[in-house]
Amino acid sequence: MKTFHIAIFLVAILGFTNCKNNSNGEPIKKKKNTQPNIVFIMSDDHAYQAISAYGYDLNNTPNIDRIANEGAIFNRGFVTNSICAPSRAVMLTGKHSHINGKVDNIQAFDWNQDNFAKSLQEAGYQTALIGKIHLNGLPQGFDYSNVLPGQGQYYNPDFIENGVKKQYPGYVTTITTDIALDWLKNKREKDKPFLLLYHQKAPHRTWMPEEKYFTLFDDRKFTPPANFFDDYNNRPAAAMHEMGIYKDMDIVYDLKMLDKEGSIKSKKRNNAQWMYDRMDEKQRSAWDAYYNPIIKDFKSKKLEGKDMALWKFDRYMKDYLRTIQSVDDGVGEILDYLDKNNLSENTIVVYTSDQGFYLGEHGWFDKRFMYEESFRTPLLIKYPKEIKAGTNIDNLVQNLDFAPTFLDYAGVSIPKDIQGESFRNIANGKTNKWRDAIYYSYYEFPGEHHVKRHYGIRTDRYKLIHFYYDMDVWELYDLEKDPSEMNNVYNDPTYDSIKEKMHQKLLDIRIKYKDSDDLDKENLELYLKAKNMK
For residue 384, is the peptide bond before it cis, meaning its omega torsion is within 30 degrees of 0? Predict the structure, then answer.
């Protein structure tokens, strides 16, 4: 009898534990997860001008545009520090560079500090980081990671999967997409909310296109921006740059003029050769079939001066935009997967870049400066449950705001030391109350491209920049009258009252974000020390 009662008791306990049936013997439905999934797509150096949703008519990005069409497009998305690794550190932590410690590309990033992926992981999310992160060390906060070491390579790239390095055959953008889709389909637990950071290398320098897009834009000649031949009048820091398309863009490394005879000389020819040698025989054959005729034609023209500058610009734009086309393809594959698997309704999809990029404005490529083209970044977001299709947003948001926004959507408490703000209620239209100014700092000088150290503040209409360290130069721009930032009005007496207000705002915002001249000096010493150790 005792044995019988014990058996009945155990069956009852097991029944309650498994919770398979209710009191009527009917199956109990598992509570449906209400936390949104998050797919955070980031590319590298993708200028907002090169997304067709922004209306610049340079290229066509139908899949990235889908995010805007089905959700919101931010017309004033910005970064806090326009350079790869620091931007990603800000994105993860929700804190300015001088707080999270990753002020430049040289110093190490401390993965032991909090990031939003860790918080979501603790809240029950399954998390994955795939593609480029450009932060040293094994990523923390992710159940699965498969990342490019450093900048990564376009052809036959290495990846580091959960700490183990291996090489993948093929094209990096396609491979990154395939890994992300494989995780979505086969590696995640389907009953958990998920966070996927899907981060592409492209269109980072040196803009090596995928074979299927070699000839895209061959029927088009790109016209440079109106200020392509900028003389940098009254802007001495801009004049000292080393990022000019004409003067500084490497003819072999950047523009693929790697002739077999070796007669085209350049500083980075060996780097270009190394990237070319990564290709397999089939890839090199296709590459040569396209680029060798261009090399031959280039040699025959013997271009100089303005003609050379315009030729370089056109070649640069074609390859840059071709790499973006592959990124757009990958975005389409991810969106299609979400649609086909009934995940779109409960999934937040964000598309952004780690910063903006110059597409010939001021005669430049690259980023770093606080001028609009590198300071501003594309930002598109869709979430059908909350965001109306076709929403346009003009508020001043920054990459500082991603961490608190994602936590807000997930119903997770936002740590008090996060410096960004959730833009959830901006995106869903519940409020338009928002900050009236944003702060920027750039630290990597002396360094590549020779962009001086500077910090500054931007409001709806004005921008104040201070270049410091081995110079002491102030710049003030009226963005309403001078959107291309060609006229520094800092010493114009008609702007004296504006200048005074902007200086006070800059002082206030530096106090708010706990930045100071003393920290600038400290970070300079750390940078110089780290640089000398390399």
Answer: no
- Say how many C-beta atoms besides its own lie within 10 A of residue 65's C-beta: 19
Q: Are strands 126-131 and 144-147 parallel, antiparallel or unpaired?
A: parallel
CA distance 367 to 47: 10
Domain 37-207+316-533 bears CATH identifier 3.30.980.10: no
Measured CA to CA, the distance from residue 146 to residue 157 in angstroms comes to 12
> And the tokens for 111?
């993965």
CA-based nearest residue to 381, from 70, 54, 46:
70
Q: Give pLDDT tens digits for 82-121.
A: 999 999 999 999 999 999 999 999 999 999 999 999 999 9
DSSP string across 270-307: HHHHHHHHTS-HHHHHHHHHHHHHHHHHHHHH---HHH
Which of 230, 240, 228 has its CA nearest to residue 317?
228
Q: Is the pTM of this model over 0.90?
A: yes
Q: What is the DSSP string of 401-427?
A: GHHHHHHHHHTPPPPTT--S---HHHH
Give CA–CA dist 234/475, Å, rounded: 9
Beta strands in 96-214 (DSSP E): 126-131, 144-147, 158-161, 164-167, 194-199
